[in-house]
Amino acid sequence: MKKTESGKTLTARLRSSRLLIPLASIVLTFAVLTIVFVAIGRNPFAAIYSFFQGSGLGMKPSYSKSSSMLTDFLSYLGILSPMLLGSLGVVVGLRGGLFNIGVSGQMLTAGFLATILVGYSKLPPPLSIPLVLLIGLLAGAALGAMIGWLKYRFNVHEVVSSIMFNYIVSFLTGYFIKTKYVDPIIRSSRQVAANARLHIIFKTASGLKLVIPVSIFIAVAMAFLIRFYLERMSGGFEIRMVGFNREGAAYAGVPIRNVMIRTMLISGALAGLAGVTYYLGYYSTMVPKDLPSLGYDAIAVALLGNLGPVSCILSSALITIFQKGAVYMSSATGVVREIASLVTGILLLFSSLGVSMRERSRHYD
Amino acid sequence: MIDKIIIDGLAFSLPLFAMAIGGIFSEKSGITMLALEGIQGFGAFCGAVAFAYLQPVIRGGTQVIVYPVLFAAMLGGMIFALLHAYMSIRFRINQVISGVVVNILAMSLTIFLTGLINEGLTGEPSNKIWLGAAPRFSVPGISRIPVIGAIFRDLYIFAPFIVVFAVVSAILIYKTRFGLRLRACGENPESVEAAGCSVKRIRYLALVICGLLTGLGGMNFAFAFSANFSPTIYMGYGYLAIAALICGNWDIRRTLLTCLIFGFARSGGYQLILKLGMSSDVSDLLLMIPYVLTLLLLLFFSRHNHPPSALGSDYEYDRR
């Protein structure tokens, strides 16, 4: 495409603007969502607003005695943090040219190990909380590094191996939960002790129970930390080099093996953190043989955030509104909850189309 | 017991094989195919919907309905394969990402629509569409032979389709002009364009065939292993098929071999559990076997494999 005299061409503008693609994807998704709601005979504006109400970003018509908009919002933050951490894991992987689709499996491993090692002990919070986080980091990192090593050493495609690990981990932990740690009434693992959970509880004078998730601070700090690492440190630069052009990086003397394993190690560690904040923060039990779909939503978050760690804060906030608000939306409008995943899928479709359009525009001018 | 292992093993291997052939078509033409999981699920969903709507209309029971249902499943598979094709050929999205997009979209769309359709049909949103047992048959005569005869006993109605498709596919890929061009698209797309053929058209065609076979496999899985369409269809069969074709070095005969290994490992494990009289919790551990086996096979075979050289590359004829 030729550049016109008057200014930039459309493709040039697409490339220069970092906000255009995410914004366009969001607008298009809301348009599709409106059409879907109209097609099944619901008021689209009320239905879309109910997602926000369910996430504590809009007033519900009525609240029970122990809840308010604030408690809803805190609960929203509680599920936002694993989403953000998981997407950061995907971002680090993709920046290094590796697609970590095993976030779910790494979350499950980390959550399971932290649950059985710390969750059922009687350690005081100052000891148990760092321990839970450490176990999460290590378990996720180990599984991630394993995938990276298999890729380098045996040329096993990381997508296939991490999916195999997902299923293996889900069956394995499911077996142990069912035989050793099961609560016969709820048919999932026994609840973890309150002092091992990653939140602080305040009770206000008016009877509200405020559950403040510790994990949200960790998650946001991680987003900035990862940005600093990727953009400003030599280790992160190597990761980006390998992701951009593996042969070129090797020619420039980057140790490919180390970098590939390191990429997956960091990615897995972040996924592991997501796992403990999910299973010992937002939830307190584990359903056997249940891979968290959050691990797949994290991919959508990462792509919507243009693979930028800090922009992932915004994109995870958006996708979590749909995932979290779906429960209330479902009860308010009677539409099945799975529409949240559909929204995520559509958002992912549009944002990946947008990313491809931007990359194509690079071939011209 | 050996009979049972053979019968159940084949019942698992054949649909897996159908999906793996679909994957071979796609990957041989140079399109990375991680979308098998979503395509088979959407195919099975379309088949199940056809079943739900045809059952009150057509008389003759499952024996008759199964053919239009199969057709719907293949059509559904084709639609979603074309989505992947459109995204990776027209929009040139990274094919790995496009595959995952297709998977997520298929999963959420089918679950959402299942709820809607059930609400319309029965009044309550359930996430299952009931299918009932698939018709089975035995080949008269040879199925009486001890041990080997088990291969021809209690076959699903889908089995002859899969066998025919497999033979046709093998001829198509290795013996015809189209097959030569298809393979060239995956190895050296420039040469195809130089010979005056359209790379894009061949890739679209390859993906249509892929969707057809994968939809067939998905329908077979839905019928044979759960007797309904529900979210459990997303058990990772599609990824197993991908692993099978990688272990099989993108070759139809070797892929058949790995599919058979998966199937027999699975059914053998089940029979072992039954024989030893272990609890159902342990059977979960056995469900793990195909996945562990896949990983081990990949370790041994991935290094000496030769994937199509242009696999995953987007091809633009005017790019220099």
Produce a short descriptive summary.
The complex is a heterodimer of chains A (365) and B (320). Chain A is built from 14 helices and four strands.
Roughly what fraction of the amino acids of chain B lie in strands? under 5%
Q: What's the total number of strands of chain A?
A: 4
The CA-CA distance between the termini of chain B, in Å, is 61 Å
Q: How would you classify the helix and strand content of chain B by structural class? A: mainly alpha
- Give the SSE string of chain A: HHHHHHHEEEEHHHHHHH
Which spans of chain B have pLDDT < 50 for at least 5 consecutive residues?
none
Q: Give the fraction of residues assigned to helices of chain A.
A: 55-70%
Overall 3D form of chain A: globular
Oligomeric nature of the chains: heterodimer
Number of helices of chain A: 14
| Count, helices of chain B | 12
Structural class of chain A: mainly alpha
* Radius of gyration computed on alpha carbons of chain B: 20 Å
Q: How are the SSEs placed, and which strands pair?
A:
The complex is a heterodimer of chains A (365) and B (320).
Chain A: H1 10-16, H2 20-39, H3 44-54, H4 69-95, H5 103-119, H6 125-154, H7 158-179, E1 182-183, E2 188-189, E3 199-203, E4 209-213, H8 215-232, H9 234-244, H10 246-251, H11 256-282, H12 294-304, H13 311-333, H14 339-363
Antiparallel strand pairs in A: 1-2, 3-4
Chain B: H1 2-28, H2 36-54, H3 62-90, H4 95-122, E1 129-130, E2 136-137, E3 155-156, H5 158-175, H6 177-187, H7 189-194, H8 199-226, E4 228-229, H9 237-247, H10 252-276, H11 280-287, H12 289-301
Antiparallel strand pairs in B: 1-4, 2-3
